[in-house]
Amino acid sequence: MILGLVVGMGVLLLVMGLGKRLARAVVPALVDLPGGAWTVGGGLGVVTVLGVIGWLRCASGVSAESRLGRVLSALCTATCCGAAFGPFFLLISGLPGRNCRSATCAYIPGTGSALLAYALSAGLVGWIVNRWTSARAAERATLERERVRRLRKKGKGKSRAQQ
Fold first, then answer.
1. CA-closest candidate to residue 56, choices 27, 37, 80, 83
2. Most C-beta atoms within 10 A of its C-beta, which of 26, 49, 134, 153?
3. How far apart are CA 110 and CA 41, in angstroms?
4. DSSP H stretches of helix in 32-107
């Protein structure tokens, strides 16, 4: 068991290190795209919100009875989770390392403004989606209350005394 933990930790550290190295190679190319760091940050913020929406829909869905259905559901949840957290970690890796003084830990120009645009766009789009879904839920609740009221008026619904 201890050997399994040691090997697992080694693989985890290797994957995290390779991910950071890949991100530090990709971030300068992303920041140099037309529109600059602000456009990249805004786009990644929208990707994060879409990933969270997909993640919540996949995770709250009805569990499938077949093994293939469960595997596909888990794969969908993992993909959406990666889309939700991936852009944030991509932008964070462009910031300078705290205790590292080598050139591989240096600040990548444009990462700070991209991170700010990311936070603003993710917050704004997330707030808009939350307001929209809350309004839809309130409308559905109002329609249900109206339907129950009409049934009670006809004498077909539960009476208030029975509740």
1. 80
2. 49
3. 10
4. 36-59, 67-92
Q: Which amino acid does the sequence have at 30?
A: L
Alpha carbon distance 24, 37 (integer Å): 15
Q: In the numeric block, which tokens belong to residue 105? A: 């830990």
Q: Which of 147, 110, 103, 124 is nearest to 46 (CA)?
A: 124
**Beta carbons within 8 Å of 95's beta carbon, 6+ residues apart:** 107, 108, 111, 112, 115
Residues 49-68 have pLDDT tens digits of 999 888 888 877 666 678 88
* Among candidate residues 18, 44, 19, 21, the one with its CA nearest the CA of residue 31: 44
